[in-house]
Specification:
The chain is an alpha+beta fold and 211 residues long. It folds into 2 domains: 1-128; 134-210, Thrombin, subunit H (Beta Barrel), CATH 2.40.10.170. Helices cover 55% and strands 19% of the residues. It has helices at residues 2-25, 29-90, 96-125, and strands spanning 134-138, 146-149, 162-167, 170-183, 189-196, 207-210. It has a 6-stranded antiparallel barrel with strand order 1-2-5-4-3-6. The protein is elongated, with a radius of gyration of 29 Å. It starts with a helix and ends with a strand.
Length: 211
């Protein structure tokens, strides 16, 4: 996270001299206002990028913690099996048939644990399934409630699926809800706006995520 802050500060530091130089060379108040607006927009976008990077770091940290907990559980199970097998080997049972049966059970447990370990390794090696997150490519016209998104059959979108809508500038606040009425092709689907916040107009590039 500190690395991201340093990058943002460097970018802002590089932008400041350019703005200051431009203000010294050009005394036109309109140019000054334009440069200030552009600088404010760049600063805003850098802040949004920083927030998204912070969110990704939190998700990655959670995944690593889950993997560590799974590995700990597997190691505990292996230790229990080893201890059980060692105790059975050192303990003499009068009935040979019971010994054979117990060793068979232990072998099955070891086989199950081995299968769990292999499955966990494959799960860690497998790439994370892509999230079905897209955006509005054709917003609803005035008085209409139909729009198009850039996700289709290739992403697993199906008729009846519902997507929450977020403004591109505020990806954490839901402003609407749409339901897929038609999957157009591999990369496009059409949906009906079920509801949206009063005074909010759904526009091109607004983010959509499945419920």
């Amino acid at each position: 996270m500190r690395r991201h802050h340093v990058v943002l500060l460097l970018v802002i530091a590089l932008c400041l001299p350019s703005v200051a130089g431009a203000q010294k060379k050009q005394k036109d108040p309109l140019l000054q206002v334009y440069l200030e607006e552009q600088f404010a927009e760049v600063t805003k976008k850098l802040g949004e990028v920083s927030e998204r990077l912070a969110t990704l770091e939190v998700e990655i940290s959670k995944l690593k913690q889950q993997q560590a907990e799974t590995a700990t559980e597997l190691r505990t199970a292996q230790n229990v099996v080893r201890n059980t097998d060692s105790s059975l080997s050192s303990y003499r049972l009068s009935n040979q048939q019971d010994i054979i049966s117990l060793k068979t059970d232990v072998a099955k447990i070891l086989q199950t644990v081995t299968a769990l370990i292999e499955g966990a390794k494959k799960a860690e090696a497998a790439p994370e399934a892509p999230k079905i997150e897209g955006y509005i490519t054709d917003p609803p016209a005035d008085g209409k409630d139909v729009c198009t998104i850039n996700k289709g059959s290739a992403a697993g979108v199906k008729v009846g699926m519902r997507f929450s809508v977020f403004k591109a500038g505020d990806p954490n606040t839901q402003v609407g809800l749409l339901e897929i009425t038609e999957v157009l092709d591999a990369n496009n689907s059409r949906g009906k706006i079920l509801h949206s916040k009063p005074g909010i107009k759904l526009e091109f590039s607004d983010i959509v995520r499945p419920e």
